[in-house]
Amino acid sequence: MLLVINDSQCIDYWLSKLKGVTHSDVEWLLAQGFIAVASTSSASVPSREDPTWKLLMHTLNTATISQVSDVLKAQAWAQLKGLRAYRFVQDVDQCVDDRELRDLARAFVSAIHGEFGGEGVERFVHALAERRALSTRTLATPAPPSDGIALTPAVGATPVGFDAAECYRLSRWPSAGTLVTPVFNRLASLISHHALPLQQIALRGRVDVAVALGFVQAMQAQGVLEVQRQGCPPGLVTEPAPHPLREGLPGMMPPSQPNRASAPPAVSSGLLGRLRERLGLR
Predict the structure, then answer these.
(1) Per the record, which residues fall in region Disordered (predicted)?
(2) DSSP codes, 28-90
């Protein structure tokens, strides 16, 4: 229980999520001093009369459930970071309906208001409003890459503050704590080999631009991202970032290929002949 709960939700919420834990256990932890009642001062909750809060409620109530989910995940990685962000993303994925997700969004706003003040709330409002606006724009379907695999176009344009000409590539493999979701693992693999702009990261990773933005910000915060402002041609292949499990292992290196241009032509004699030719024994 101590590894799970935090002050982003009331205790009844955590008790509903944890099996075998009751209010008696909470009272015992309080008595022993392991936990304490979080501050409930008005400073930690934005005023309902604040114009930013009113704009947030309007945007939140008119956004779709997928838009709210995408922005919550991206903002969690951008503002909470680390283990707190990972736990919050899990909470978002476990929401069973629209009402529960929007309640979680309001709790998130209260949490970031307590930590960052109005600036944190404004960042969330801007991201949610931008996500709604971008979803209404239609992007032309790009030509499929050279391998012939058709990709689903990413929704949205390059967010404000990001140069469309900038390309991103990993300078080294991120820590395991950063790559806590399969999506982040997939995006990291993409830019370990290619220097790609934000739109291409979202397109090739089959994710929304908001998710790609959260990934880029997480990599920047960890200091493992290289930014190339000279532009990067699509399909440019660079040396991949070293993977911690593969670096230094000779068995993981690709086998050397013989110079087939100087080899005399050989006639394949069935399966054995093709295997010998592939292994360079001819």
Answers:
(1) 235-268
(2) HHHHHTS--PPP--GGGS--TTSHHHHHHHHHHHHS-HHHHHHHHHHHIIIII-HHHHHHHHH
Q: Is 186 exposed, middle or buried (0-12, 13-18, 19+ CB in 10 A)?
A: middle
- Percent of the chain with pLDDT strictly greater than 90: 0
Specify the DSSP class assigned to residue 229. Answer: -
Spans of all domains in the chain: 1-38, 42-134, 154-244
| Predicted pLDDT at 38 | 63
Q: Kindly report the CA angle at 188 between 182 and 193, in degrees rounded to 5?
A: 135
Q: State how far the Cα of 122 lies from the Cα of 236, in Å rounded to an integer.
A: 37
Whether 168 and 201 have beta carbons less than 8 Å apart is answered as: yes
CB 42 within 8 A of CB 31: no
Please state, in angstroms and as integers, the Cα–Cα distance from residue 155 to each residue in 92, 161, 193, following that order. Answer: 20, 18, 24
- Residue range 154-244 in CATH 1.10.10: yes
Structure token digits, residue 121: 């709330």
Which tokens is 246 given?
Answer: 């593969």
Q: Which residue has the tokens 């008595």?
A: 31
Cα–Cα distance, 88 to 108 (Å, whole number): 9
Among positive and negative, which fits the CA dihedral 199, 201, 205, 210? negative
Q: Which of 109-113, 141-145, 240-244, 258-262 has the highest mean pLDDT?
A: 109-113
- CA–CA dist 176, 115 (Å, integer): 26
